[in-house]
Design brief:
The structure holds two protein chains of two kinds. Chain A is α/β, with parallel strands linked by helices. Chain A has eight helices and ten strands. Chain B has a domain of 262 residues. In chain B, the strands form three sheets. Chain B has a ten-stranded mixed beta sheet. In chain B, strands 5-6-8-10-12-14-16-18-20 form a nine-stranded mixed beta sheet, covered by helices on one side. Chain B is globular, with a radius of gyration of 21 Å. In chain B, 54% of the residues are buried. The chains are: A alpha/beta, B alpha/beta. Chains A and B meet through α2, β6 and α3 of A and α7 and α8 of B.
Chain lengths: 262, 472
């Protein structure tokens, strides 16, 4: 059984069905890319996996490390080892990055983390993400540039050491330096901590810096194509329209059922 | 009004004629107080006459706001002074004081329970340097020359019945004098406690910062929770009058922690802070609870070069009613002002904050800004924030801004995905909302007191906040 198993997931928001039967399996230590055009349901999947209250699961299940978490509270999923790096991180005025991290780490532990241990971990993460130490004294995401917000997301990911992280369009709006830092951070957490990651992206750019082993293409709420890194190259050559025509012509039901080969 | 010299012979307070007043019902004192050379006995007598001839006050603001004291049974309240108080058992510091005040280094402390001073301590080395901390009653006996020029210099005694009651009936009070050039790092703590229902406390504070003195004052207004009195008596009254005068170049950080607990405590107080030439005051009241609270807070920059930061925090819960009128008054220029308040309301509480910037004729080169931010934590809570500006000089800048917010669900979800449960996330948001001001206290022990009180109120409002979330 995979660490994260998504089975036949149907999700609606208000009165619209957005995900129409998604199947996906992700293990610790695996890097997956989920690609798709705008409006295909990528962010819905990311938010649903962490239990956003605006998304209603009408069918299917999410299992994490053997536990059914389909109806679990967001913080329970996080404590179990899931993480979401947001496309648009929210600012939390009045709370410093360091204090926030300490609270988040302590929420996962029985006893509060020792000051020294916390400092060591923070220093390590700060170096990994190539940010100034003063960065951690600033209020979380408050007045941060786009690049700083994304670095702060990866910094949190490094500190909270999840088993599986979902990165929702972390590459959007980043200049090339920030993109490289963020991507290298993900790659190193994968290499050093065995992080499993689902990198959700519209573009191929980030995948030049962090190499996925598995690539899934989401269209109209279903995964229509799966493969290895060669799929990224194909997408780069042909674009989404070409793929849409191809899969649209065929029996999408079979493709979307997720039993296709990887 | 010059602060540097006594105001002997000044005219009694009169409303200034011809001012534009439509924008606000609440009026700044903006003038001389009652202390115009009369003796204390004469002032008491005048106040008594005002008390006897006036009704309990009702404050109205055109149609949508009323603060009424009609429900208080004033006749049933004892003053608790005199022989009753010297009986012995009342002479102890109430538990609520020991529970609330931080264990920390202090310059001195005065505790008044109901209308009796039950503790006065002052660092002996400060006493040697001329610092005075004693009851105001004792100060009138022992330091008349210091007290009489300043007593009620800018506070009136007859605008309403409870102000008159305070001026007529106060019996203990607090007096702090910091001599010229004396710099004190640790705070002076002045505590008004009410340990039982059925009493009226008349609190009277006078603080004088002599030229170039520097010090901190922390006032605590606390009551025991008296929910469970067998006779059903839960009412108490705190009618307060506070004045602080900073002379040339004096600097003071003044903070106030007010929480009247769960009893039916009414608090009607006037506070005046006068900032003299090149003086500075950082003033931060934290109004954290009371059945019905009406605070008139006035900070006046009275001489050139004066500067101030006027901060404030409030948190109303359950059925509390809070009415704050905060005045940023500039009587001369150049002067600076910066008013920044933050308030939250839960339950079915009502809070009104009216902030007034008033710049007098001749107060040229005054620059001031007023901002008020409020956060609603329940669908039935209400906060009205009314900024107003009265400017009578042309070479000035005065502006205001503010926000009204609710809990940000996106921020809550964000924090939940980091493993924090919903109550923890709410707490972080609300504490973060107050934090910019709490951190400005620049006093760790006091900051902790305020943070703990805010956290306690959030915990109490937990179900309410949950219900609000699901209703949206």
């Amino acid at each position: 059984m995979a660490d994260l198993e998504i089975k036949d997931l149907h999700v609606r928001t208000e009165d619209r069905e957005i995900l129409r039967g998604v199947d996906l399996e992700i293990n610790r230590g695996e890097i997956h890319a989920l690609m798709g055009p705008n409006g295909s349901g990528k962010s819905t999947l990311a938010n649903t996996l962490l239990g956003h209250p605006a998304y209603e699961i009408t069918e299917g299940s999410i299992t994490f490390k053997g536990e059914d978490i389909t109806g679990a509270e967001p913080h329970e999923r996080a404590k179990a080892g899931l993480f979401l790096a947001f496309q648009y991180p929210v600012s939390i005025p009045g709370v410093s990055v360091a204090n926030f991290l300490r609270m988040a780490i302590n929420a996962k532990r029985e006893d509060p983390i020792q000051v020294k241990e916390f400092r060591t971990q923070l220093q390590h993460a700060v170096e990994l993400l190539d940010v100034d130490r003063a960065f951690t004294s600033r209020h979380l995401n408050d007045g941060f540039s786009g690049g700083e917000k994304k670095r702060a997301e990866i910094l949190q990911m490094a500190m909270l050491a999840p088993d599986v992280a979902i990165l929702d369009e972390t590459d959007s709006g980043l200049d090339i330096d920030a993109l490289r830092t963020v991507a290298e951070g993900v790659q190193r957490l994968h290499d050093e901590q065995g992080l499993g990651a689902l990198i959700i992206t519209h573009y191929q750019r980030i995948l030049h810096y962090v190499k996925p082993e598995f690539v899934h293409i989401l269209m109209d709420g279903r995964i229509v194509l799966e493969g290895g890194v060669e799929l990224v190259e194909r997408l780069e050559r042909e674009g989404y329209d070409q793929i849409r025509q191809e899969v649209g012509a065929g029996p999408t039901g079979a493709l979307a059922s997720g039993d296709g080969s990887v | 009004m010059a602060l540097g010299s006594p105001a002997n012979g000044a005219a009694p307070a009169q409303p200034k004629a011809g001012r534009h007043r439509e924008s606000t019902l609440y009026q700044a004192l903006a003038g001389a107080g009652a202390g115009d050379g009369r003796t204390l006995a004469q002032l008491r007598e005048a106040a008594l006459r005002a008390f006897e001839s006036s009704e309990l006050p009702v404050w109205r603001r055109s149609g949508f706001w009323t603060t009424s004291l009609e429900t208080i049974d004033l006749d049933a309240l004892q003053t608790g002074a005199g022989p009753e108080a010297s009986g012995g058992e009342r002479a102890a510091v109430p538990d609520v004081v020991s529970r609330t005040l931080p264990d920390r280094a202090r310059a001195g402390r005065l505790v008044q329970n109901v209308n009796t001073v039950v503790e006065v301590e002052l660092d002996p080395t400060l006493a040697e340097r001329g610092v005075i901390l004693c009851s105001l009653q004792d100060a009138f006996r022992d330091h008349l020359d210091l007290v009489s020029p300043w007593y009620s210099k800018r506070l009136t005694i007859d605008r309403h019945k409870l102000e008159a009651a305070n001026a007529a009936f106060w019996s203990a009070g607090a007096f702090l004098y910091v001599p010229p050039g004396v710099v004190v790092e640790d705070p002076f703590e002045i505590v008004y406690a009410i340990d039982r229902p059925g009493v009226a406390q008349y609190a009277r504070t006078l603080v004088i910062g002599a030229p170039t003195s520097e010090f901190r004052v922390h006032e605590y207004d606390l009551a025991e929770d008296f929910d469970s009195e067998p006779d059903g008596k839960r009412q108490a009254l705190h009618a307060g009058a506070f004045e602080l005068y900073l002379q040339d170049g004096a600097r003071c950080r003044l903070a106030q922690v007010q929480d009247w607990g769960s009893g039916e405590v009414f608090d009607v107080s006037s506070r005046f802070v006068g900032v003299g030439r090149d003086a500075y005051c950082h003033w931060l009241p934290a109004l954290l609870g009371g059945h019905l609270v009406r605070q008139h807070l006035e900070l006046a920059v009275s001489e050139p070069g004066g500067d101030m930061a006027f901060r404030g925090i409030f948190f109303a819960e359950e059925h509390e009613h809070l009415d704050v009128f905060a005045v940023d008054l500039h009587e001369t220029g150049p002067s600076g002002g910066d008013v920044h308040w933050r308030g939250a309301a839960s339950g079915e509480s009502r809070a009104s904050f009216e902030g007034l910037i008033e710049i007098d004729p001749g107060a040229q080169q005054t620059h001031t800004y007023l901002q008020i931010h409020s956060m609603m934590l329940s669908p039935k809570a209400r906060i009205d924030a009314i900024p107003s500006v009265l400017v009578s000089s042309d070479d000035v800048s005065a502006s205001h801004g503010g926000t009204v917010g609710e809990l940000d669900e996106a921020a809550i979800f964000y924090m939940q995905t980091r493993g924090l449960d919903r109550p923890a996330a709410v707490r972080i948001i609300v504490e973060g909302f107050f934090e910019p001001l709490v951190a400005e206290l620049q006093d760790e022990a006091l900051e902790e007191v305020v943070r703990k009180k805010v956290a306690g109120k959030l915990a109490a409002a937990r179900e309410d906040i949950e219900a609000y979330a699901t209703s949206r």
